[in-house]
Write a structure and sequence with these properties.
This protein has 176 residues and is α/β, with parallel strands linked by helices. It has one domain: 3-Layer(aba) Sandwich (Pyruvate-ferredoxin Oxidoreductase, domain 3), CATH 3.40.920. The protein is built from six helices and six strands; from the N terminus they run E-H-E-E-E-H-E-E-H-H-H-H. The chain has a six-stranded mixed sheet with strand order 2-3-1-4-5-6, with helices on both faces. A hairpin with a 7-residue loop joins strand 2 and strand 3. Helix 1 packs across helix 5 and helix 3 packs across helix 4. The chain is globular, with a radius of gyration of 15 Å. The model has no long low-confidence stretch (mean pLDDT 93).
Length: 176
C-alpha cells in the first residue's frame, strides 16, 4: 500500500514540520518513506509545500503530482493543488483561512477550522498538527502508539516543551 500526501500552505505554518512528522512516523513503523520539502525564497509568509510518501514498497520518485491526501492551509495552495487529488482521495482544508467549499464529489472533503481551533485551545501556531490529527482519525496511516515516538524524534531537545503541545494539537484534531 502506498499513500502520497501533499501538505501545502504559507511559510511559517509548519508545513515542512508536519511532513517530517509523518515521514518519521512511517519510518518508525518500518515503511518506505519519502519527504520532499519545497518552499519559496520568502520562507515565512512565502509558499511552502511538502510531499510525503508512505509505502510498503520502495519509493520510485519523491515527487507527488496526484496526491491521495492534500492538506491545504491557505487559499493559493487549495486552488493550485485541489484539482490534482486522486479520485477517492482526501482533502483536508483549514476553513479558518479558506472560504472556498470543494464541490468535488469523488473525494472525501474535510473542512476544519484548524487555525481557530488552535487559537481557542491555546495552541497558537499548531493548526498544522490539528489537521494531522484529523487526518490520522480519517485514515490511520500510522498506529496511535507511533505518534508520540515520532514527535519525540522531530522535536529537538532545545524545544522539548513543544512535545506536549504538539501532542495536544494532534489529540484535538482526532477529536474533531
Amino acid at each position: 500500500m502506498t499513500t502520497q500526501i501533499l501538505l501545502a500552505g504559507s511559510g511559517g505554518q509548519g508545513i515542512l514540520f508536519a511532513g517530517k512528522f509523518l515521514a518519521y512516523a512511517g519510518m518508525l513503523e518500518g515503511r518506505e518513506v519519502s519527504w520532499l520539502p519545497s518552499y519559496g525564497p520568502e520562507m515565512r509568509g512565502g509558499t511552502a509545500n511538502c510531499s510525503v510518501i508512505l509505502s510498503d514498497a520502495p519509493v520510485g520518485s519523491p515527487i507527488v503530482q496526484q496526491p491521495d491526501v492534500l492538506i491545504a492551509m491557505n487559499l493559493p495552495s487549495y486552488l493550485r493543488f485541489m484539482p490534482a487529488i486522486q479520485p477517492g482521495g482526501i482533502l483536508l482544508s483549514d476553513s479558518s483561512l479558506i472560504a472556498e467549499h470543494c464541490a468535488r464529489e469523488d473525494i472525501t472533503v474535510i473542512e476544519l477550522p484548524a487555525t481557530q481551533m488552535a487559537y481557542d485551545e491555546g495552541l497558537k501556531g499548531l493548526a498544522n498538527m490539528i489537521l494531522i490529527g484529523r487526518l490520522l482519525k480519517q485514515s490511520p496511516l500510522v498506529a496511535p502508539e507511533t505518534v508520540e515516538r515520532a514527535m519525540e524524534k522531530c522535536i529537538p531537545p532545545t524545544r522539548a516543551a513543544m512535545l506536549a503541545l504538539n501532542l495536544r494539537a494532534i489529540a484535538a484534531g482526532r477529536g474533531a
